[in-house]
Specification:
CATH topology: TIM Barrel
Length: 207
């Protein structure tokens, strides 16, 4: 459960971050980390279109640089985008200066006030600076679609077990997560709709 749904004590460490939204409304927010890549992201976009769903993509700057047309297609289809650093950098492993420079480099391409740290890990010094420029979006439910130890059925089960009003749910449009995500995403969308949840994108304060 520590991975699938971050515990209260971890949320308390970073109260400035967004973990859930609109807790009294029966809505959830699908998010996708690590793209865009041509092998996976177009499938995600087509699947979301099929269900009439909008989501939020936290993009790695290097992938945006390699696939600028695909990045523009995400926005063209009405989805939100956010910064996921330039090189999927884990904040706990590097200095604040290097980390912030990496985020700034990605921001030159992505130009979004939304930010999500890779692996959900940040140092306080990094967070204190970033929150002056970004809304730091964490998550309430991690599907764990990236795990080689889980099946697609188990990934779907994680969603069903931990989702609640206002949950921000994490999937990944990455090669590592492709198999499990392709199984679980459409079934999760159908299940959420059957349970009466609306599925929305995360809007920035600028909208």
């Amino acid at each position: 459960m520590f991975i699938e749904q971050p515990p209260l004590f971890y949320r308390i460490l970073f109260p400035e971050c967004v973990w859930r939204l609109h807790k009294k409304r029966k809505c959830v927010y699908l998010t996708f980390d690590d793209g865009p890549i041509p092998e996976v992201t177009p499938w995600v976009l087509d699947t979301l279109d099929r269900y009439g769903v909008k989501a939020t993509f936290f993009c790695v700057g290097d992938n945006v640089k390699r696939n600028p047309g695909l990045f523009e297609e995400i926005k063209r289809r009405g989805h939100s985008v956010g910064n996921h650093t330039m090189n999927h950098l884990q904040g706990m492993k590097v200095t604040a200066r290097r980390y912030l420079r990496n985020v700034a480099e990605a921001n030159m391409l992505i130009k979004s006030p939304l930010f999500r740290p890779p692996h959900g890990l940040l140092k306080w010094a990094q967070s204190n600076v970033l929150r002056e420029h970004f809304t730091i979006v964490m998550y309430d439910v991690v599907s764990r679609d990236y795990s080689r130890k889980l099946t697609g059925e188990q990934v779907l089960k994680n969603i069903k077990r931990y989702v609640r009003k206002g949950s921000i749910i994490v999937f990944h449009d990455s090669l590592k997560a492709e198999k499990n995500m392709k199984y679980a995403l459409p079934k999760a969308i159908e299940w959420l709709m059957e349970k009466g949840y609306s599925i929305e994108r995360i809007k920035s304060s600028e909208e």
